[in-house]
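User: Before I run my own analysis I want an independent prediction to cross-check against. Here's the chain; please return only the structure tokens and, at the end, one sentence I can use as a sanity check.
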Amino acid sequence: MGTCLGGISTAYAQSTTGNLNGSVPAGGNQTIVVDSTNGLHREVAVDERGHYSITQLPLGTYTVTLMRDGAVVDTRKNIPLRVGASTDVSFAAPAAATAADATSLSGVTVTGTAIPPIDVTSVDSRTVITSEQLAKLPLGRSAEAVARLAPGVVNNGGGFKSDTGRSLASFGGAASNENAYYVNGFNTTDPLNAAGGIQLPYGAIDQQEIYTGGYSAKYGRSDGGVINQVGKRGTNEWHFGAQILWEPNWARASGPNIHYVNTPSSAPAGDLYQPKSQNDQWATTVSAYAGGPLVKDKLFFFVAAEFEKDGQRNVNAVDSSTPASTNTFENPRWYTKLDWNITDNHILEFTDVGDKRSGSGTRYGYDYVNMSRTNTIGPVNNTKVGGDFWNAKYTGYITDNLTISAQYGKMSVKNYDQAGNYDPDLARVDSSGNQNPLLNGGSAIKNTQVADISSPGRGNKSNNLRFDVQYVAGDHTLSAGIDNVKSQVLDFGTFSPGPGYSWSYGFQQDPNEAIDNTPGRNFVPAPALFPNGQSGYYVSKNVNYNLVNVRSDQKAQYIEDKWQVNDRWLVTVGLRNDQFTDYNQFSQPFIKQTRPQWAPRLGAAWDVNGDGSFKVYANAGRYYLGLPLNPATGAAAGYTATQQFYTYSGIAADGTPTGLTQMSGVVSGNNSYGIPPDPRTVAGKNLKAENQDEYILGFDKLLGDNWSYGAKATLRKLNTVIDDFCDIDLVTSKAEAEGHTVGSTNSCYLVNGGHGNTFTLLDPSGNPFTVDLSRKEMGMPATKRKYYSLELYMEHQFDGTWYGKFDYVFSRSYGNTEGQSRTDSRQNGAAGSMDWDNSYVMDYANGPLGNDHPHVFKAFGYWQFAPEWQLSSNFQIAAGAPEVCLGYYGPDQTDPAHYGSAYHWCDGQPSPPGDKGRLPWTYQWDLGLTYRPTWGGDRLAFSANVFNVTNQQRAVFRYPTEWQSRGTPHPLYRAPLITQDPRYARLSVSYDF
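Assistant: Structure tokens:
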């Protein structure tokens, strides 16, 4: 069977459609007719070369018919489409067929011909998991868990999660908040931190596309990867179903206890820090769906709903104000899809999705010595997170060569977190383990005040607008369009509870050592210089306040040409232009990146043998990433984060200090005194958006009837990153040296880390002036994040008995910045890490990055070992991430930037990432067993999944901070705060009819 290298077909990442293409024998007046189970009917002409292509078809199952002079010549039935890809359906000259797959229809042969699994029309890197595979494989029920099946995708080691509690993934060395999320073409990425996005109910997923590189100019705003979910839709056949799932506590193994490495004097239970072995967890999920025609061939609906209820009994760390709790979480999710075939050439789609999580519960005291609950404290915070969106899409097949599509939608997400009740006059107490044991009787005195308070209206909103045009002109498929997203964060931030401040206890092993010994506004002297400080104990009064509304406007335009050079060569050339504008709480722009930011994309695919059995492909492109809104709530908003230090002579019954002697004035490590900065001064002038260049070269090849294999090499290089720079004295000194009088400064400035920057300051009259600092003047190394990998894979297509895929990726991710988060110090959020804050924290920062896993092996599949029984498996092995030690600066262990034990020095020696070795290798083996009895008519199924079968609980994060204060070892240095989840099981029963 011959194949056509696309026949001028177009496939896009994050799309909701697929394509059909192929070749036919030479003949007269030939056309191709396609009919789907969704009622769609299309007819296109075969060109003079015997090729055809039908693009942007809704996903579904199709019948493809070759017509000649109005008569049926040949038919292919039950052709499924794959999202964003082109399926080759070619017609050879009529030939004999077996009785099982051929029938005579008025002299016309109707055959079912195998379709090559290699898509020779694509130049990208993606993995598509279908609903059939999702139902068979033992997987966590989240988009990220599915994404981790793809090569080059790993779970983040910092414990970073979305608002709805899903563990985030890292793609190709990028930070875990540099990915984009789509559902039915709508961008659902969290606009605040880019940490996850709204997802479909698990059973409503038709296909999930995991994009790991090389995507079209039509899409952007990601330099990690893309998770694109496409939901199911109604057909001309009615379908209903329901499922119940249980994750019982009795089938869950105990977690590991965490112990102090250096036990504080007031620790209540020796070296025990957190008894995770006492935690319990269970879940029940009920789901149902229905779909079918409202009007046959014209109007269809599909509805799915899922309700998950989780229960937890938690024991927290010994210094927590919530020692123990019982928590209940309710997770309603829904999906509604309407499809209206107005005519064969005009389609209207409507999607409505909800993905929410609400929590409540009770707080308890806890006896850590006897590991038992004590008194009831009160309710835990009531939380409501997640949200919903709606999206409408129109597709018009104006002519055989011209297609247009337009979509618009809105998303609304809550981030509600409110205390059930609390004492408005009580100040919270933190770090009670550092209290003077002579004043607390040798046992820490805590209180039950809640964490920082947030506004009940906190949340965010977004709207998406897309318009795309595609025109086929001979061998060229030309595409152009716009891609706009507007986002707004409402009432974001928190403030200190009670009287508006909290107390945090500290201890200096050498009481004659200054707490902050760097001269300047933040100098804090030694405790021994003040009454009651001779033993090194002190306390700080901390004030935090931040509450703002901010917004962003992200626009893009693109143009692309897919050129079918000949039957074997396809070349794609694209160009995208992104613009990003961010506004502060007064609707004033503080970042305006509206000059052209060109993102070229170039790709090629070579159908080596001309039959779809061997493809060689290459891709090169630049990808821009817009800044999430979180920095707008910080550096651009003028938040308050101050401390004032005291010694004390007593501790009250509520844990607050008494007999205070002031040691310092009000200080702030980042000059955060709550003064909103002038928007002109927030960011470096001509600030460049984060962007990355990527190069890919690979091949895919068939091996026999069922096997395929391939290899791919990837190189990624980060060019620019945005972060905050907080060495204010360096900026003002340069300004004064140039003869300026500085009227005011900011807490920090948003800059391009590792580049020279132009700062805007104000004189005493409020007039702006600029100061240029080169990279060397800022004392910074050049920006560096490089990722290279080699992927090898083999895949066995399901042959009625078994399916399997095996891949190995060797990779290195190294440099001095991970991007928009930092795994090795658990600092998530754009401009939220210590990186680039000053030159000192960047000394010796170069090394393997926090998500560097040089060797990763994955194997997953399923085996139909008996007519009623199926066994499935998902096995992954990963090399550990680099260990990190953060200490005081230089051989003399000083603190030049007021950052404490946060420099890449350990015991007075330089300590770049990985200098202390690596975390252990991790092994994860998940198993599934499904029984589908014949007496159930192939509709009833019982399943059991066991996750982490061997109950591996290896460390994936160790606390990196060496010192609590100068000369005082940190109690948790190298403690394994995050480990693999313990073994647990899921049982389910489902019925489909």
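Sanity check: The CA atoms of residues 249 and 282 lie 5 Å apart.
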